[in-house]
Amino acid sequence: MTELDRIRYVTQYYAHLQGLRLVPLGLLFLAAAAWRSGWLVLPGAADRAEYWFVGGFWIAIGVSFWIRARYQRQFGHLRPLPGRNGFWFFMGLLACVLGALALEEVGRWPFAARAPLVVVVGCLMYLGLAHGALRKHYLIVAFAVLGLIGAQRLGLSPDREQALFDVVIGGGLMIAGLGDDRLLRRLLQSPSSEVYAGTP
Amino acid sequence: MPGPLEETASLDRLVHEPSRLAILTALSACRTADYRFLQVLTGLSSGNLSNHLAKLEEGGLVTIEKSFRGRMRHTVETASHREPVTD
Predict the structure, then answer these.
(1) Any long-range contacts for A64-67 (C-beta under 8 Å, 24+ apart)?
(2) Per-residue confidence at A89, pLDDT binned at 50, 70, 90?
(3) Which pTM value belongs to this model?
(4) CATH no. for residue B35?
(5) How many domains does chain B have?
(6) Interface of chain A against chain B, CB under 8 Å?
(7) What's the domain count of chain A?
């Protein structure tokens, strides 16, 4: 990657690479998996588990905004180009998931695996392979989701399957988040002093 | 009045200098960027970055806005890329 490619890439995808923002949500899913497996005891969670999850979800969202503010203090702030803030990517993904669900509904879905999971795997593969596989950690997440699809065919009990689902979602968010943060820090490392030396 | 070739030559010198090319590349990939981001991205010192931004502003290639943010009343410079006007 040339110096100008580095600058262009990190500027275009600065918001996407603020990966630590995903970590609180990842921890929430891992905690949910631990609770389902009996390794984590939450008072009153036996009949009010959804309150714990919804409360944890909003806390994770709040912490995510706090982490964004920290990124801006540390690395600065920018406004992305129109259409580059991830909104259209998310809308495209949503449209694909809904389209796949519609195909599944009318019985024209060609795969044995559930439609949303196949779309998510495709999306993760794209993220992992695009731009010279800079974000190759997404491939690990894609293979984890493929593993989940395979495990669903083993006939696990619903509780175990749900716990496994939470582990894959939580672990995937952690891998994606930590990988993106590492990539951002690597790409934002100041170039060696010779690059811009002697330039009045 | 400078001829068209002289005008191009001075524009090239303004843009081809590595630090300024780096700044312009960053600003062409976003709507606006603040001073802190450009400094982290290029590794330039504050004085150097200010000088380069001032030259690019003089050349009509970037717009710089200064604003106050928060209670600390510190100045935030935001630069954005401006397409050179051509006939």
Answers:
(1) A64/A21, A64/A22, A64/A24, A64/A25, A67/A18, A67/A20, A67/A21, A67/A23, A67/A24
(2) confident
(3) 0.83
(4) 1.10.10.10
(5) 1
(6) 3-4, 7-8, 10-12, 14, 74-82, 84, 188, 190-191, 193, 195-196, 199-200
(7) 1
